Amino acid sequence: MVDFAFTPEQRNLYFEVRRFVEEHIVPFEQDPRWTRHGPSEELRSELQALARKAGLLAIHLPPAYGGRGLTHLEQALAFEAAGYSPLGPTALNIMAPDEGNMHLLLAAGDEEQKRSWLLPLARGEIRSCFLMTEPGGAGSDPGLLATVAEPVGSGRYRVRGRKWFITGAEGAALGILMAKVPDHGPTLFLMPMDQPGVRLVRQQETIDGSFTGGHWEVALDGVEVRESWILGALGEGMRYAQLRLAPARLTHCMRWLGGAVRAQEQALAYARKREVFGAPLGSHEGVGFALADNELDLRASRHWIWWVAWLLDRGERARHESSLAKVAVAEALFRVLDRCVQVMGGLGVALETVTARLFLELRAFRIYDGPSEVHRWAIARRLLGRQQPISPFAA
Asked: Is residue 264 a contact partner of residue 340, using CB atoms and an 8 Å limit?
């Protein structure tokens, strides 16, 4: 039976993170070190030092890695609270792509890989990136993967290919690389980003700006990787990527829900104080309905997230359900931000307000970890392939 009766400790977790973000992180939102391409390394380090002091750094991880061993439902509470500021997830070291990469290392890494990479990631000493998306289309369709890792003897492979929209590539110490190994198939490698042949081609100009290092096109010109760097098993890259993607889709939803809550609070405050046509803005029906629709979308999004988190905590893969939640939440939260901008008028499109910046981030979220259309296509394919009647218990 689904039970969202949170304990006092779990409720306190939400408010602990929310207070920290409001008091210590929100004041940095006007810091010039938050650039068009995300917070600088200096700002990231300063924010994470504050979270470390507060005992909130990488709290999602098990205690062995400095965290609190949160369940997925507890992550939903903490990550939403962290997302109240676009800088909050960076401060707590639960931002993409590092949070997803930490989850993957925890699930698939051997002890040496965890010691070498997961520990420093958890401590915020290094950053990572995930090198999968390619100009030829590998991203939405992983079957188009063109990057190849050719065996060259002595347990080594030579990698050639090109990746793009690689979040956080600049300054990352670790890259989790997806490449095809002949006769085996897609394989994940833990690749130090300072390897000879790794070349940052260009920083890509995008509308979002909350990820340290921005987004990059990366060339792999004969990069040598070792057999001991394989994450998981040879030829099992797609399976491990899915192991990463289902929870990562959900944690994106958690973080951006917090941002949408922030925008709704700003729109409500504006609607209460702004006088127009002789009455507070919010008393006009068109504005009031927009704010009411926001409340509907926020509540629905939160319950989508909690439901899938509950399934993951039960040990289910929840691949279908995470696709449902990703589409429903991404679309709903974008509607929330769009309405908030409209309610706030000129101020809503001014980048001096966090609402305008959140609007840009939420537009990009409809594409992160699979565009809504790709998820809808996958959902429809599963539905059409089923024979059983529709019921509350259909998986």
From this structure: yes
Query: Residue 215 and residue 132: Cα distance in Å, rounded?
Result: 13
CA distance 207 to 288: 29
Task: Tell me if 25 sits within 8 A of 53, measured CB to CB.
Answer: no
Residue 327: count other Cβ atoms within 10 Å of its Cβ: 22
Say which CATH architecture domain 8-95 belongs to.
Orthogonal Bundle (1.10)
Q: How many residues does the chain have?
A: 395
Is residue 231 within 8 Å of residue 109, measured between CB atoms? yes
Question: How far is Cα 13 from Cα 32, in angstroms, rounded to an integer?
Answer: 30
Token digits for 185? 């198939």
What CA–CA distance (Å, rounded) separates 145 from 137?
Answer: 8
Q: What share of the chain is helix, strand, coil (3-state, %, to 5)?
A: 55, 15, 30
What's the chain's average pLDDT? 95
Q: Tell if the pTM clears 0.90, that is, is over it.
A: yes
**Structural tokens at position 108:** 């698939």
Domain with CATH 2.40.110.10 in the chain: 128-235
Q: Tell me, what's the pLDDT at 370?
A: 85
CA distances from 385 to 59, 264, 374 (A): 40, 40, 17
The CATH number of 238-385 is 1.20.140.10
Q: Is the confidence at residue 395, as pLDDT, over 70?
A: no
Asked if residue 205 lies in contact with residue 75, where contact means CB atoms within 8 angstroms, the answer is no
Per-residue tokens: 119? 């520990």
* CATH topology for the 128-235 domain: Butyryl-CoA Dehydrogenase, subunit A; domain 2 (2.40.110)
When pLDDT is averaged across residues 200-211 and rounded to a whole number, the result is: 96
Phi then psi for residue 5, to 5 deg, are -85, 90
Contacts 24+ apart (CB under 8 A), 300-303: 300/328, 300/332, 301/253, 301/257, 301/260, 301/328, 301/329, 301/332, 301/333, 302/76, 302/80, 302/257
Burial of 218 (0-12, 13-18, 19+ CB in 10 A): buried
CA dist list (Å): 149 to 132, 159, 366: 13, 4, 31
Q: Choose among 39, 92, 25: nearest CA to 251.
A: 92
